[in-house]
Amino acid sequence: MAAAPPAAEAALLLLLALLALAAVALRRGDALSLDLYDVTCPEVEAAVTAAVRQAMANDRTVAAGLLRMHFHDCFVRQGCDGSVLLDSTATVTAEKDGPPNASLHAFYVIDNAKRAVEALCPGVVSCADILALAARDAVALSGGPWWVVPVGRRDGRVSLANETTAALPGPTASFDQLKQAFHGRGLSTKDLVALSGAHTLGFAHCSSFQNRILRAQQGVAAADDPSLSPSFAAALRRACPANNTVRAAGSALDATSAAFDNTYYRMLQAGRGLLSSDEALLTHPKTRAFVALYAASQEAFFRAFTKSMLRMAGLNGGQEVRANCRRVNPS
Ligand code: HEM
């Protein structure tokens, strides 16, 4: 076979190099590993678990905060890239200061975990991995399932508040809007129902469910949302009166809000789902069937939740291992 002429050979080499680079870039985005830190940072899991356990011992709301933070990280930008952890700067308003993130909390737990991990193995473990591990620990330490978290995420360098509202569905989202948001991230309607089960933990402020109560006071003819149980609506109206001025007022998302269990689905079936987006899961036959399944079997819920968390946590595509979760590395 005749040798390729120099110009063609150079072009071929360039093409091969570009293909190799593209493959590396794709791997960065996709390939997570089960044993990445076995040698480089074997104590990472123990360090993160200790930080979460200690914070939860002092404050039972931490678990919900960490789980929601991971979701909000994974749904904006390049997926689970720690972009939600970055602080705003003089020139950039970061995701954490975007409207849907106003009530995110427990960032200090990630700072504590990162500090502990950096002391063990500096520059090895990304903030995005620490958040994914901490969310898993938050679930398990609240009585939910435990699963192995594949690792190797990279931290992103961009975080923009104005990308949050479009990416994160709001509490009044309809079934179609929820479906669209999840499909947009490559997640299914089954994932939507299973991951909404995260509302077994935590709390919502009055503003998140005001649309379901007090309509009469707002001049709308109909009173409370008819899909809401009347006694539940009355309790919510007491917690959030029309003239409420207490910013911290609100309601637990389910009746056992510090325990990770399937009460959320049973409450939904009883007309006691708190947010319109929770209630929306009952408006479609397919999602209604999943709600019934998870309400009947906590085991089925735990299995589905684990699978969906793994799918959500697999979205990634950052560039670096940040030294400080609140700031990008100096370029
Ligand atoms: C399906 C679409 C979803 C919508 C529309 C939604 C919306 C909300 C809203 C409005 C709140 C209350 C915020 C407040 O008033 O302070 C909340 C709380 C919460 N969400 Fe979701 N969420 C959704 C899915 C998820 C998912 C997928 C997860 C996690 C996997 C999650 C985890 C949580 C947790 C744990 C809380 C309680 C937070 C706390 O107590 O600090 N949510 N969500």
Automatic annotation (TrEMBL):
Q: Does the keyword Transferase apply?
A: no
Q: Where is the active site?
A: 72
Which molecular function term from Gene Ontology is one that the record holds?
Answer: metal ion binding
Q: Which Pfam families match?
A: peroxidase
Gene Ontology terms: biological process: hydrogen peroxide catabolic process; response to oxidative stress; response to stress
The chain positions of domain Plant heme peroxidase family profile read: 31-329
Q: List the disulfide bonds.
A: 41-121, 74-80, 127-325, 206-240
Residues where substrate binds = 169
Q: Which residues bind heme b?
A: 199
- Where is the site described as Transition state stabilizer found in this chain? 68
Give the residues the record marks as binding Ca(2+) 2. 200, 254, 261
Q: Which UniProt keywords apply?
A: Calcium, Disulfide bond, Glycoprotein, Heme, Hydrogen peroxide, Iron, Metal-binding, Oxidoreductase, Peroxidase, Secreted, Signal
InterPro entries, per database record = Haem_peroxidase, Haem_peroxidase_sf, Peroxidase_pln, Peroxidases_AS, Peroxidases_heam-ligand_BS, Secretory_peroxidase
This enzyme's EC code(s)? 1.11.1.7
KW Calcium (keyword) present: yes
Kindly indicate where the leader peptide sits in this chain: 1-22
GO cellular component terms listed in the entry, alphabetical order: extracellular region; plant-type cell wall
Q: Where does Ca(2+) 1 bind?
A: 73, 76, 79, 81, 83, 95
| Reported function | Removal of H(2)O(2), oxidation of toxic reductants, biosynthesis and degradation of lignin, suberization, auxin catabolism, response to environmental stresses such as wounding, pathogen attack and oxidative stress.
Report the family membership: Belongs to the peroxidase family. Ascorbate peroxidase subfamily.
| Protein name per its UniProtKB record | Peroxidase
Organism per entry: Zea mays
**Gene encoding the protein:** LOC100384634
